[in-house]
Every structure is written in structure tokens, then in C-alpha cells.
Specification:
The complex is a heterodimer of chains A (about 110) and B (about 120). Chain A is mostly beta strands. Chain A is about 0% helix and about 55% strand. The chains are: A mainly beta (about 110), B mainly beta (about 120).
Chain lengths: ~110, ~120
């Protein structure tokens, strides 16, 4: 089983709609969780960290479910500019470097 | 502030040739990383360096070498390129702390094609 799994999509969503996608992780000792955004042919950039109690940043809400070992990202009132690939990132203790493991990403397309 | 830069932006390389991808950061981050990104495989860590003078192997280190002579620079060398090394290469840096996570900042990437 892959350490971090995401539905690759694409998710095709009309502008203004709400969209949510999940990411599952296999290592129960995982400590930190993040969502990165990657635009086409660009570098990944941190979108938001995911805290145990859940957190919100404008139209974006991230949640963590440790019991079921998944994190989620919800985007409300989606904009055309939200079209991108969203990477789930998990920090796994004992991993190389700082232990970050990236999911393969979920491709989101917001349609006018 | 430039942040993190990579050179070249893109390159076509004949198989068997050597090449060094350059990466420079001006944020005084102690940790630096090299990833490759391939369609369907996501980002995979090649090598990393937690501090100047030290390096470590990532998930896919074979065929690549790195050095970290100073804080700012982290070059990646392909000694004898093969077509399977065709990929987009991202360099990243972070202010690495033991037991804590700090945001990784990525460079714009180098698109390498090995023929």
C-alpha cells in the first residue's frame, strides 16, 4: 500500500460549487499534514497546514481524521483560479530528510 | 529576494553525457532537497542535505550525485545520463528543525530530456 494516496481525478467542477477531496495515509505515526498546490508547469507551493482540530483559510477548509487516517480539503465557492493540482503531504517519522512524503496529487478543473 | 533559483530552465541532453543542474537559495535555509516529478509518479526525493557539508539519499538516488559545499548551493549531477532520467527536476529548501516541520520552498524546476 502506498504511504500517501490521493484520487488523481480530474475533478471537473462548475464555478461557484463546493468541492472536497481526501487523502489517505498508511503510517499511523504520521505527525504533520499539509496541502500543497501546484499549477500547470509550475513548482508546488504550500496551501495550508492541517491541524488536528481542523482549520480554515478563507474558502479553504482542511480536516484531519486520525482514526481513519485521512485528511481532507474542502473548497467553497470555487473560482476558475482554483484550477490546479493539489498535493497531500505527510510527515512520517524516520523518513529521509524531514520525512515529508508527497501524494501524487488530485487534479481539479473549475469550469465556467 | 530571489528565493530559490534553478538553472537551466530546460535542457536536451544526449544519453551518456554528464550534466549538472544548479540550485541556489538566498533564504539561508539549512536544508535543501532535489526531487524529480514524473507523470503518474508524483514527486520523488532524489537526495537531500540537512546542513552544509552533509548529504543523504532519498527514494531514487541511483544515477545522481550531490554536494553541499556551502549553505546556498546544492548542485545535482548526472554522471552519465540515460533516457529514464527524462523528468522535471525541482530543488527545494527549508529551515529544517529536528522534530518539526518547516515549509519547503521550491524552485521553478528544470525540464530535462535525455535522448
Amino acid at each position: 500500500r502506498k504511504e500517501v494516496e490521493q484520487d488523481p481525478g480530474p475533478f471537473n467542477v462548475p464555478e461557484g460549487a463546493t468541492v472536497a477531496f481526501n487523502c489517505t495515509y498508511s503510517n499511523s505515526a504520521s505527525q504533520s499534514f499539509f496541502w500543497y498546490r501546484q499549477d500547470c508547469r509550475k513548482e508546488p507551493k504550500l496551501l495550508m497546514s492541517v491541524y488536528s482540530s481542523g482549520n480554515e483559510d478563507g474558502r479553504f477548509t482542511a480536516q484531519l481524521n486520525r482514526a481513519s487516517q485521512y485528511i481532507s480539503l474542502l473548497i467553497r465557492d470555487s473560482k476558475l483560479s482554483d484550477s490546479a493540482t493539489y498535493l497531500c503531504v505527510v510527515m512520517i517519522p524516520g523518513g529521509g530528510a524531514d520525512g515529508l512524503t508527497f501524494g501524487k496529487g488530485t487534479h481539479l478543473i473549475i469550469q465556467p | 529576494t530571489a528565493g530559490i533559483t534553478q538553472a537551466p530552465t530546460s535542457q536536451i541532453l544526449a544519453a551518456g553525457r554528464s550534466m549538472t543542474l544548479r540550485c541556489t537559495q538566498d533564504m539561508r535555509h539549512n536544508a535543501m532537497y532535489w526531487y524529480r516529478q514524473d507523470l503518474g509518479l508524483g514527486l520523488r526525493l532524489i537526495h537531500y542535505s540537512n546542513t552544509a557539508g552533509t548529504t543523504g539519499k532519498g527514494e531514487v538516488p541511483d544515477g545522481y550525485s550531490v554536494s553541499r559545499a556551502n549553505t546556498d548551493d546544492f548542485p545535482l549531477t548526472l554522471a552519465s545520463a540515460v533516457p529514464s532520467q527524462t523528468s522535471v527536476y525541482f530543488c527545494a529548501s527549508s529551515d529544517h528543525g529536528t522534530g518539526t516541520y518547516n515549509e519547503q520552498f521550491f524552485g521553478p524546476g528544470t525540464r530535462l530530456t535525455v535522448l
